[in-house]
Structures are given as C-alpha cells and as structure tokens.
C-alpha cells in the first residue's frame, strides 16, 4: 500500500541517542504534545506509559533535569507506545544501565510483536530478538 509522504510520520517512530527532546517541557506536557500527533497504542494510556518507563516520580519534572537514562527510556517509550507499525532504533540501550537493558528487552517482548523493528547497533543485546541481520562490513 502506498503511503502519501504527508502521512509517513504516522507510520514510523524513531529513537536515537542524538535525538533531541524539548527540554523545557515537563514529562506529562511532552507526552500530551507527542500523542497529539501520534496515536497511543491500543490499551495504553499516558499514565500506563509513564509507569512502564519508570518515570512516575518525574511527571512534573522538566526534561532538562532528566538523566541520560531517563531520556533514553522516554525516547524508547514514545516509539513502543505509539501506534506505529515501523520502529527505527539506533543504539537503543545507549545510556541505559544493565537494568535498563533488561527493561528494553522486556519492552520488545511485551510491545514489539506487532511492529517491524529495525535496529542499528554493534551490541548483540540490542538486536538478539531480530530474525534477520545485515552486517554492514559485508557490503564495503
């Protein structure tokens, strides 16, 4: 099915370490803003998403005061909790500690089954769930 270029943003979500977030928004302001442009995944509310990202104590905190790990969980949560069929994840566990890596793997298992996920990474923990792999060095 062909998708008009004006609608592509509704079909995909992106998470990357270099992706900037609006630092002056509180978490709840940002999520409300974000989900005006993208639909929430069926069965998930903003409150559910906040809890799943372990950010319930930070709803009124501005994003500029988030740690790098909190920002990464937010970026990944925006992807997985959006009703988008395609996720593009660049180094998804960047800035996450071991608990965060396990959280990401759970996120994939719990919310990634109905999505096509493309991961750019050198870390096998980030793409172990992928059914197909492309090694860039094989194409140089």
How would you describe this protein?
There is one protein chain. This protein is of the alpha/beta class and 140 residues long. It has a single domain (5-139), classed as Rossmann fold, CATH 3.40.50. Helices cover 35% and strands 10% of the residues. The protein has helices spanning 27-37, 46-52, 68-80, 98-111, 124-127; strands at 12-15, 86-90, 116-120. A three-stranded parallel sheet has the order 1-2-3, covered by helices on one side. Strand 2, helix 4 and strand 3 (116-120) form a beta-alpha-beta unit. The chain is globular and about 45 Å long.
Which descriptors apply to this entry?
140 residues; Rossmann fold; 3-stranded parallel β-sheet; 5 helices; alpha/beta; single chain; 35% helix; 3 strands
Count of individual helical segments: 5
**Widest sheet: strand order?**
1-2-3
State the end-to-end distance: 32 Å
Characterize the main sheet. Answer: 3 strands, parallel
* Whole-number count of domains: 1
- CATH level-4 homologous superfamily: P-loop containing nucleotide triphosphate hydrolases
Basic shape:
globular
GO molecular function: ATP binding; ATP hydrolysis activity
Domain ABC transporter: 45-94
Pfam families: ABC_tran (PF00005)
Keywords: ATP-binding, Nucleotide-binding, Transport
List the helices and strands and how they pair.
Layout: E1 12-15, H1 27-37, H2 46-52, H3 68-80, E2 86-90, H4 98-111, E3 116-120, H5 124-127
Parallel strand pairs: 1-2, 2-3
Helix pairs in contact: 3-4
